[in-house]
Design a protein that fits this description.
about 850 residues, single chain, OB fold (Dihydrolipoamide Acetyltransferase, E2P), Phenylalanyl-tRNA Synthetase, Chain B, domain 3, 6 domains
């Protein structure tokens, strides 16, 4: 929301302070002022002139006019101009020699087209108003000739750019911003919704008369609909330049008087308005939902097929407007329109938001309606629009209005007067609470007072004193412009922000004795640190994917990962599913980084995946809000929710080890992805083993399936499948645009958490020397090295020496004539150490023999050299 300071000062009696101070006060009140821009202050010397004569110059490729313009001096000025959107008698901004336009451009006298041009007639772009070089700015007939244009048009201004959060919809208007600024400075606020109505003719408030008929057919779409009429509008009427300047500063390009007035009041009050050409309407105007097969060509010249949930304004010919979003082309006002119907309404916020997203059509009107508009504004806003059309366009206001409405029960919030104190952790007192709530427009009364007016104000004489509510409880009726206030916590937040967030004391919460991180939390932190320690960089990707991602991963039609939860209201139609694997988001992040010039990448992510349950209901039942849910209701909701295990995944591309003066870098290979799984399993003190596997999206010959051991590290537990690691399939690499030989790993961390054997303990450092034993075993070539290692560990454990084994490391793989065709030799180092004595050669040899014996038994290994 762009807020010109001059417009703000019109309704809030702000003191003479710098704009930065205004911004600081609004920020303290909870509004995010992103920037303050000084505009129009560099334009000097421009005056208002009147065109006396126009000479059309011929012989040139484009229209050229030599104009005589009076600017209040003794003699008129002769000025060359190429624009043709003005005539004799038009009042225009004139920059004489010496004047300075936007960007520091100084005007000089010059000769062109055989004439001396004594200045310039200015366009909007040259004055820094809006982007329009096609014609000059034509002023209203009342503009005083010879007066300074900058002051008359209000060019010099400061503009605040405020980011308004969705819950503060009332601030998407000068009215709301002025109210906040007045409260922040403790000064008088004048409500623009109440100003300018006394100029209307007698009978404007009546809900009858000869005004165009209308009705509401769907109360869920609209609860208030107002029509007013004006007749005899002069189509040649010009919008006052000050109004156009303010619209431009707020980010809206001026169009015509009727459109500018509706836009001006929308920015000022926050109430969107729409003007219909009455001669193009037929029959009663109705607010309803669209019917099957209906279409509407909107003002952007797009023919839209309407959805049955769309809210439309229709007459007997069909839809004439997408309610609260954009009008129809067939009933728009044009340069000949003289009979207008002004529409103001209160449409459903949810319905408008869904319709806007459905048609991918966002407008200033829909932006406001979908956040919530003041229900009481349609009557005064439409009246102000009619009054301005009468004042500026010589129109006649038809007395009365058409007012269709649906009764709406007022919101009443019962709150303990001390509730804001409890939320903030400090004492405000009841008087402060009530004063602040009244400042934002609330009606405050003691509980049990009934539906009377506000209580406790000076001299009102109504009801008991303010401090005598039932048990210190007050009843608060939020104002119509604050639909976001629905609970005591909302009211507490208002009191706290107006008193100042900086006043809330900062105290660290004291952790209860005997509590700390859960085992799952400790495990997740341990795993995350392990990833980081191995050189991986964490990323967080959106959990949304599409079926195209499954195709890119080459998943077959029956793959369970293709069964995904579909969102009812996705952020984008291109990604309507919840992820069942972390890989698509990680791979897109990898590609994005590669495109930024980062070639050597090791990324990891820890996040939830969403797996639909077999036989689960498609939708969860809605819980009641008048009581807490029962155990059965909670169980039904849980049954409808998908399983949401925590997964961890890595992707690698480029060099795993960098190149340098020491030599070439080492590219990442499938073994690095497998090692990532080993590293996090070791950090969590969980046994892990892997076997060769075939699983898309991995390469069939370079893929390992990961298994977690649910027993002890000695190897006497159950193996449970936990994920896959390896090199990605070439077709997957091509589909995602990845570098060749990209590797990845994905593991079920929820399973890892479930098999963690308690907190990781720091190892005891033995002071006795290590003993090493090397063993070379000949096994058939298809036997995985991991299976041989598992056999060695199991043999040592069965001999009762598991506590002596520190590590087993594969240091050599040999294939050749010496081991026979179809065989391979695997050489391992057994690292042994006793905690209380130095191992003897006999003890070390006994451990080695037990390990070899189990390898012989399990995989048919033969000790090399025997």
């Amino acid at each position: 929301m762009r807020v010109p300071l001059s417009w703000l000062r019109e309704w809030a009696a702000l003191p003479d302070v710098h704009t930065r101070e205004v911004a600081a006060r609004l920020i303290a009140a909870g509004l995010n002022v992103e920037s303050v821009a000084e505009v129009g202050h560099d334009i000097r010397g421009v005056t208002i002139g009147v065109v006396l004569a126009i000479e059309e110059l011929t012989g040139f490729k484009k229209p050229i006019r030599y104009c005589q313009v009076a600017t209040g001096g003794a003699e008129p000025r002769g000025i060359i101009c190429g624009a043709a959107n003005f005539a004799v008698g038009s009042r225009v901004p004139v920059a004489p020699p010496g004047a300075v336009l936007t960007g520091g451009f100084e005007i000089t006298q010059r000769t062109a087209y055989g004439h001396v041009s004594d200045g310039m007639i200015c366009s909007a772009a040259e004055l820094g108003l809006w982007d329009d070089h096609s014609g000059i700015v034509v002023l209203e007939n009342a503009a005083p000739v010879g007066a300074g244009f900058a002051d008359y048009a209000g060019l010099g201004d400061d503009v605040l750019d405020v980011e308004v959060t969705p819950d503060r919809a009332y601030c998407i208007s000068i009215r709301g911003m002025a109210r906040e600024a007045a409260t922040a400075f403790g000064v008088q606020f004048t409500d623009p919704a109440d100003a300018g109505l006394t100029a209307l003719p007698t009978g404007w408030q009546a809900e009858d008369g000869g005004v165009y008929p209308a009705r509401i057919d769907d109360p869920t779409a609209c609860d208030r609909f107002v029509l007013r009429e004006v007749t005899g509008l002069d189509p040649a009427s010009v919008t006052p330049i000050r109004m156009r300047t303010r619209l431009a500063r707020a980010g809206m390009r001026p169009v015509s008087l009727a459109v500018d007035i509706t836009n001006y009041l929308m920015f000022e009050l926050g109430q969107p308005l729409h003007a219909f050409d009455k001669t193009k309407l037929t029959g009663t105007v109705v607010v309803r939902r669209a019917r099957p097969g209906e279409k509407l060509e909107t003002l952007d010249h797009v023919v839209r097929t309407l959805h049955p949930e769309d809210i439309v304004i229709a007459d007997s010919s069909g839809p004439v407007s997408l309610a609260g979003t954009m009008g129809g082309l067939n009933t728009e006002i044009d340069e000949t329109s003289t009979e207008l119907v002004i529409e103001a309404a209160h449409f459903s916020a949810v319905g408008t938001a869904r319709m806007s997203r459905r048609h991918r059509l966002s407008s200033e009107a829909s932006y406001r309606f979908e956040r919530g508009v003041d229900r009481e504004l349609p009557l005064p806003a439409s009246a102000k629009a009619a009054a301005l059309l009468a004042q500026l366009g010589d129109a006649t206001v038809v007395p009365g209005c058409t007012h269709a409405q649906v009764p709406v029960k007022p919101v009443v919030i019962s709150m303990a007067a001390s509730h804001p104190d409890g939320v903030a952790g400090m004492t405000y007192g009841r008087a402060v609470v009530e004063r602040r709530l009244r400042q934002i427009g609330c009606e405050v009364r003691p509980a049990g007072h009934g539906a009377g007016g506000p209580v406790g104000g000076p001299g009102d004489g109504q009801g008991p004193p303010a401090g005598r509510g039932v048990d210190g409880t007050i009843e608060v009726l939020p104002p119509s412009w604050r639909p976001d206030l629905t609970s005591p916590n909302d009211l507490a937040e208002e009191v706290i922000r107006l008193e100042g967030y900086e006043q809330v004391p900062v105290r660290l919460p004291r952790a209860p004795a005997g509590r700390g991180l859960t085992q799952a939390q400790r495990t997740r932190r341990t795993v995350s640190r392990a990833f980081g320690g191995c050189g991986y960089v964490e990323v967080l990707s959106f959990p949304f994917i599409s079926s195209a991602d499954f195709d890119a991963l080459q998943l077959p039609a029956g793959d369970p990962r293709r069964r995904a939860v579909r969102l009812a209201n996705p952020l984008g139609d291109d990604e309507p599913l919840m992820r069942t694997t972390l890989l698509p988001g990680l791979l897109r992040t990898l590609v994005r980084n590669l495109g930024r010039g980062f070639g050597d990448l090791a990324l990891y992510e820890m996040g939830l995946v969403y797996l639909p349950r077999q036989g689960a209901p498609r939708h969860a039942s809605r819980l009641r809000v008048d009581r807490g849910p029962t155990a059965d209701e909670l169980a039904a909701v849980d049954a409808a929710l998908p399983e949401q295990p925590l997964h961890g995944a890595v992707v690698l591309a480029g060099n795993r080890e960098p190149a340098g003066w020491w030599g070439f870098g080492r590219p990442a290979v499938w073994a690095d992805a497998v090692q990532a799984a080993r590293d996090i399993a070791a950090a969590a003190n969980v046994g892990l083993t892997e076997t060769a596997a075939q699983q898309l999206p991995w390469h069939p010959g370079r893929c390992a399936q990961l298994f977690l051991l649910t027993g002890t590290a000695a190897g006497n537990g159950e193996l449970r499948p936990a994920g896959f690691a390896g090199e990605l399939h070439p077709r997957v690499v091509a589909a995602f645009g990845l570098p060749p030989r990209t590797c990845a790993m994905e593991m079920d961390l929820s399973l890892l958490e479930s098999v963690v054997r308690g907190p990781v303990q720091a190892p005891k450092l033995a002071t006795y020397p290590v003993a090493t034993q090397d063993v070379a075993l000949v096994v058939p070539a298809p036997v995985p090295a991991a299976e041989v290692e598992d056999a060695l560990r199991a043999g040592i454990a069965s001999s009762g020496s598991a506590d002596l084994l520190e590590a087993i490391k594969l240091f050599d793989v040999y294939t050749g004539a010496q081991v026979g065709e179809g065989n391979k030799s695997l050489a391992y180092t057994l690292r042994l150490r006793a905690p209380d004595h130095t191992l003897t050669a006999g003890e070390a040899s006994a451990v080695r023999e037990a390990a070899v014996a189990e390898a012989v038994r399990r995989v048919g290994a033969v000790l090399r050299g025997n």
